Amino acid sequence: MALLAAAEPPAPPAPRRPFRRALTYLVAIGSVCAVATVGVVVGLNRLTGGGPVTERCTAELDGADWFLSPAQADNAALVAGTAVARGLPARATTIGLATALQESKLINIDHGDRDSVGLFQQRPSQGWGTVEQIMDPVYSTNAFYDMLVEVEGYEDMAVTDAAQTVQRSAFPDAYAQHEMRSRAWASALTGNSRGVLSCELAPVADGDQRAPDAARDVVAGRLGRDLGLAPATEATDPSRQDPASATVTVDATPLTPDDPGRGAWATGQWAVATAQATQAIEVQVADQVWLREKADWLPAETRLPPGEVAITVDAAE
Fold this sequence. Notes:
With 317 residues, the protein is an alpha+beta fold. The chain has helices spanning 18-38, 70-85, 90-104, 131-134, 137-148, 159-167, 179-189, 212-227, 260-273, 275-278, and strands at 40-44, 52-61, 64-68, 197-200, 245-251, 280-285, 288-291, 296-299, 308-314. The protein folds into 2 domains: 18-197, no CATH class; 204-314. The strands form 2 sheets. It has a 5-stranded antiparallel beta sheet. Strands 1, 2, 3 and 4 form a 4-stranded antiparallel beta sheet that branches. A hairpin with a 2-residue loop joins strand 6 and strand 7. The longest helix is centred in the N-terminal third of the chain and has 21 residues, at 18-38. The protein is globular.
């Protein structure tokens, strides 16, 4: 993945109205908790044959589950995938996720305080780029990391201090409240915790299914955008391929050359986090497979080679 040139540190923000800003943060914090805990109720459950599905994604760490909505998980996958593709440590991902959770609730919004926009609420007036650039989550995520890596010793700093050094917020301690959720998701999406990220999603609606080639193209596009990876040229075991699905295989070894297994799990759990957008129904890493209809990782019938990931998406027959 090509890297952006490091930007000059933005100027300190102009004074803000404390009461209005404090009220905004109270509302935002409540919204994060509501979205992350409850999720979105839609669809029909294939297992129960009629109950509503609460669509949400979960990352487990130290026995605790940390929830995000599918839309938040999709953006978390980009923030984490960008860090992994750049060779940054998991700590950078934790800082990036905590910052985006505080600034935008991990939603790419086109509004904010003064002229702030995007995942990280970056301001054109402070040199972060144009509105169009900042609204591109790939650009804004790389811009954030460009600044973070210029902070000497950021890996050893408290999350809130590292985030504040980049963001220069009027509420410098606000990032700390998102640290545990961000650590859980960072650990999963960097492949350090394995088989701990899952999503509860409604079945892909018949009318939303894509032709097999189009379905593969969507996955391939997201792999390139988020992780800088290209799919392999051949699908896994075409004789076992369901005609109503399409499989993309990818070699994740370039992400972590010294530990292909970690790169595979980073990619596999990225594929689960983005499953609502890509219509993924199965993701296999090593001898484990995530099944959309089960919302869980289970033993696979076969074992993939180290570093390889197979992503199967629902497709039109």
